[in-house]
Amino acid sequence: MELINKEQVSKKLSGRLMVNKVMKFIFLLCTLVGLVVLATLLIDTILDGWRYLTVDFFTNFSSSRPDNAGIRGAIIGTLWLMATTAPIAIILSVGTALYLEEYAPKNKLVDFVKINISNLAGVPSVVFGLLGLTLFVRMAGLGNSVLAAALTMSLMILPVIVVASQEAIRSVPGSIREASIGMGATKWQTITRIILPASIPGIITGIILALSRAIGETAPLVIIGIPTILLFTPTGVLDTFSALPMQIFSWVKLPNPEFQSITAAAILVLLFILFLMNSVAIYIRNKYSKRF
Amino acid sequence: MSEYNIREMIDKKKGKSGNAAIEKAVPIILLIITLVSVLTTIGILVTLLTETVMFFTRVSPIEFLTSTEWSAFSSDPQWGIFALIMGTLKITAIAIVFAVPVGLGAAIYLSEYASDRIRRLVKPVLEILAGIPTVVYGFFALTFVTPLIRGIWPEVNLFNAISPGLVVGVMIIPMIASLSEDAMSAVPNSMREGALGLGSTRLEMVLKVVLPAAVSGIMASIVLAVSRAIGETMIVSIAAGSTPNGSLNLMESLQTMTGFIVQVASGDATYGTDTYFSLYAVGMTLFVFTLLMNIIAQWFSRKFREEY
Amino acid sequence: MTLAKVKEETDMNTVYDTAVDSRTQEMNSIKQTSNAIFQAKDFNLWYGNNHALQDINLDFNENEISAIIGPSGCGKSTFIKSLNRMVELVPIVRTEGDIVYRDQSIFDKSSTVENLRTKVGMVFQKPNPFPKSIYDNVAYGARVHGIRNKKVLDQVVEKSLKGAAIWEEVKDRLNDNAYGLSGGQQQRICIARALAIEPDVILMDEPTSALDPISTTKVEDLMHELKKDYSIIIVTHNMQQAARISDRTAFFYQGYVVEYDKTNVIFDKPKDQRTEDYVSGRFG
């Protein structure tokens, strides 16, 4: 007796192939969900908001009257926030990544630091907001200033840049380090002249992606108590400010339907900034990827 | 051209530079910088703990844990965290039920079926989707998804669990899809060839070989996504409402832990009131939940790394 | 360090008396003709608990090519990396005994390890140019050591590339990335890079193992040229290469130096049975 009935196998095979085809189609649909949602979101927002993208919209401050409402304060505030967050975050994160990859001994403490960083990456942004409120706004007495918000944001995006920088530094082959060390270069010379230049594309990509997360982050700003209606722009890091996502959040809650369109217009501006930042990051990554 | 004696020049330069001091100082400076991340964690823990303790000197922890009602702003405030946890769980459950099948389906398609060209096209879309600020998603939920749902089921409230739940799901799809795809891609090709060589269809290969082999990596991605959904703030603040309740009804307004924190913070919670301290008690609860999820996710991904 | 003391120390080594005898005799003749640039004295090295190098006593001569051969894992790479202390990049390494470079211990605290490495250049197993232009690659060492004058750097680059016999191939594209070159060219760029700071000794750790035969020949020819100005110590797993290019050969086996002698002696009349087995291809 044959153990395998060939006829039956081939009869079943066509059914199995059919199931395979159907499921492949379903998997494709799953993949397209993201695309469809993205397209819907963009089209809906554009249809809603494009009429409000006038010059006045960019030059007016926030207002409770829809005709006068603009995002001048919000945009300038966001620029201040990013300009302050970037240097703090870069120094902290790249420094941490360099220490972990180049200097850290292999011991329990360093393992703990690494686990700690990956845990920080999973802490919700509201919790960072509470930290900022207690530590920077109240204890350090910075109030709801640009600096307080920037410090909070820096700590929040730190894990993202650290991990990206670690990967970039790790991708520099050991043989190149050896070559530099072998010529009598010191460790720090090797880092500044060889390792950092070679890993800078990856680090910059990480920084841009992290900042683009920070630029749209709202919850910590709400908790720190950033005002939403502000009729002046900051002149220093200790001044209070408003920010684009904060402005969107305050408008979205207004019942007036006209404000829905104004919110959409502000979202378009925010998305455009994000799109620009992401394009730069992707460009850098593609241009410099796989060099070793 | 005159000849320079390099050896001599190098020897002359030696010793007079401040190199040695820099070499000594750099690791110390970098170590101090590295400790900032540890201090951040300590800061979070100390902040949450001390203020939570303050809260519990005013409100009994037993009430906090056993009462089912949360009404911070009424004249007779109730502090039962259960109502807020229920809100968070409802949103998370909807998000996960929607995002896991879709995200996994997309991961399977990208890892096992798609050509390189499609993959190069779709991955950036997923990245963009992951990069959209949650306040934008909140707007989308409130002004597009909610009206759509109410068009189908008119009995759904303006604020409900379904719309923000689905949109939180959309938000975490990229995470599940890309992390699960990474896990599946890590499965060695020899295993796939083994299955295909025996006459399996591609689907059978995926279900019987790739998915079981990548299961701990996939689990890690799902648990991380759960953690993200629990901590998600703006979508629920905008579209879920602000009425904490412990019911299982998905059609009515609710409030999550994160939603409550934002509501208190965007109003004026005067420093020193019960409501002010309740921020931290809720924050602490939220932190414990997400930390647990992260630890579980790390356990899964460590297991996955050990396998490959 | 007096010769008598070296002799005394080596005499204590009774395990490989034949090798020791021949080396001691050899050393006498060396002392008369030229100075030893490197001397390993009872040098031991451990990776954690693994005793990778055991009681190494070796002298290398100026303006010669000294080859180190032996099967994989015999410690030859570890040893050559000990000479410029690169082996210490592995954190679990521990050493005992001494290595003397031109009458000064390389472990002497009065000089820095960086200083040692400017005098003892190294060429590695796989070509490892920096992801920079050819010019910047060769000028790297001079720049690191504080030379910024463009005229000096130009001269260094040209002279080193000529010295590494690759000037003609690359002189018109000095600003191109070194990664665009072939493997053999890359390795000669790496040699040029090492020459640029005018080292005293060049250590080569299997420099041709990643190259095709034609590139290998070019590098070997180059080594013959370099011998006039530099002392070269080369690790190779290729016995024919050692026979072709070196003046002296040391045979390493399981962390010991089994035999060290003039290359023709090692290959034609080795004293130790294991050396003979190895060079005749019976193992390794």
UniProtKB/TrEMBL annotation, chain A:
- Keywords carried by this UniProt record: Cell membrane, Ion transport, Membrane, Nickel, Nickel transport, Transmembrane, Transmembrane helix, Transport
Residue limits of the ABC transmembrane type-1 domain?
75-280
What GO molecular function terms would the record report? phosphate transmembrane transporter activity
Cross-referenced InterPro entries = MetI-like, MetI-like_sf, Phosphate_PstA
Sorted alphabetically, which PROSITE patterns does this protein's record hold?
A: ABC_TM1
Segments traversing the membrane:
21-43, 74-100, 120-140, 146-169, 190-215, 221-241, 262-284
Question: Which Gene Ontology CC terms are recorded?
Answer: plasma membrane
Specify the protein's topology with respect to the membrane.
Multi-pass membrane protein
Biological process, per Gene Ontology = nickel cation transport; phosphate ion transmembrane transport
Q: Where in the cell?
A: Cell membrane
Give the protein family.
Answer: Belongs to the binding-protein-dependent transport system permease family. CysTW subfamily.
Put simply, this protein is called: Phosphate transport system permease protein PstA
From TrEMBL, chain B:
Transmembrane feature ranges: 21-49, 79-104, 125-149, 161-184, 205-226, 277-300
Location of the ABC transmembrane type-1 domain: 85-297
Q: How does it sit in the membrane?
A: Multi-pass membrane protein
Using the record for this protein, list the coiled-coil segments as residue ranges, or answer none. Answer: none
Specify the domain of life of the species encoding this protein: Bacteria
Q: Which UniProt keywords apply?
A: Cell membrane, Ion transport, Membrane, Nickel, Nickel transport, Phosphate transport, Transmembrane, Transmembrane helix, Transport
For the biological process aspect of GO, one term held by this record is: phosphate ion transport
Q: Which GO terms describe its cellular component?
A: plasma membrane
- Record keyword Cell membrane present: yes
| GO MF term set | phosphate transmembrane transporter activity
Where mainly located?
A: membrane
State the family it belongs to.
Belongs to the binding-protein-dependent transport system permease family. CysTW subfamily.
Q: Which PANTHER family match?
A: PHOSPHATE TRANSPORT SYSTEM PERMEASE, PHOSPHATE TRANSPORT SYSTEM PERMEASE PROTEIN
Q: What does this protein do?
A: Part of the binding-protein-dependent transport system for phosphate; probably responsible for the translocation of the substrate across the membrane.
What's the protein called, per UniProt? Phosphate transport system permease protein
The species is: Salinicoccus hispanicus
Q: Which lineage ranks, top first, belong to the organism behind this chain?
A: Bacteria, Bacillati, Bacillota, Bacilli, Bacillales
Automatic annotation (TrEMBL), chain C:
Q: Which GO terms describe its biological process?
A: phosphate ion transmembrane transport
Q: Which domain of life is it from?
A: Bacteria
GO molecular-function terms, A-Z: ATP binding; ATP hydrolysis activity; phosphate transmembrane transporter activity
Q: Which CDD domains match?
A: ABC_PstB_phosphate_transporter
Provide GO CC annotations from the record. membrane
Please tell me whether the keyword Metal-binding is annotated for this protein. no
**SUPFAM superfamilies referenced in this protein's UniProt entry, alphabetically:** P-loop containing nucleoside triphosphate hydrolases
Sorted alphabetically, which keywords does the UniProt record give? Answer: ATP-binding, Nucleotide-binding, Transport
Domain ABC transporter residues, every copy: 38-279
Q: What is this protein called?
A: Phosphate ABC transporter ATP-binding protein
Lineage of the native species?
Bacteria, Bacillati, Bacillota, Bacilli, Bacillales
